[in-house]
Amino acid sequence: MGKGLEQELTYLFNIHEEQTKEICKRDVKMKQLVSLIGDIKLNVNKNNFEQLVTSIIGQQLSAKTAALIISRLRNLVEGQINITSIEVLEDEQLRNLGISLRKVSFIRDLCSRIKSNLFDVEQLHSYSNSEVIEILTEVKGIGVWTAQMFLIFSLGRLDVLPLGDQGLQRASLWLYSQSDKNGIEVLEDSSKMWKPFYTIPCLYLWKAVDLNLLSKSSNIEGNY
Q1: 209 Cβ partners below 8 Å, 6+ apart?
Q2: Fold topology of 47-153
Q3: Which residues belong to CATH 1.10.340.30 in the chain?
Q4: Which of 41, 109, 145, 183 is the S-S candidate for 140 at Cβ 3.0 to 4.6 Å?
Q5: d(CA 24, CA 13)
Q6: Do strands 40-45 and 8-13 pair parallel, antiparallel, or not at all (unpaired)?
Q7: What is the pLDDT of residues 113-134, one digit of tens each?
Q8: For residue 66, how many other CB atoms are within 10 A of its CB?
Q9: Number of C-beta neighbours around residue 131 at 10 A
């Protein structure tokens, strides 16, 4: 348990943080959302291998289902999700946890590439965003979105804008009340006000989805 805690870093964002204040000066609607939601914690998992494995497991699953499967895996490997603990497991053991055969093959490919020294998973922090994405998308089952989630939730990068994230697209359409544009267009337009701290508004937009705010009016000042 102690090791797990050592691997966790928490970044706290609120309207008083310098980066957040700068964004709120430029973006009135985001300022209203930040004021409504308040502090946001970004929990960064510094165990890069674990983050990649759990990201693969969580693809196309609800957060609840993914958390259940990941919890089963942690119990099976006694809390130590690393190459050694994963490699000794049989495919059937992973399948019994609820991991699809396809995702098992993705995890195996990740392990193989790391063991073959195709990249050093512990040195990814030394690369630029684009370099990390290029390296990770060579792994089977890891696309640009998964690599971007790794940049945010493992490396703690504040300059990541996952335009392809459907939750962000829906939340941006809601917040900015843009019925004549699609979600990607609204994200691209609004992100000009966030540069270079794209991650922070994304966290607030994701939180809006989690809190089911999208079912309410986006006229935040008039409704809260």
Answers
A1: 167, 170, 171
A2: Endonuclease III; domain 1 (1.10.340)
A3: 47-153
A4: 109
A5: 12
A6: antiparallel
A7: 999 999 999 999 999 999 999 9
A8: 17
A9: 11
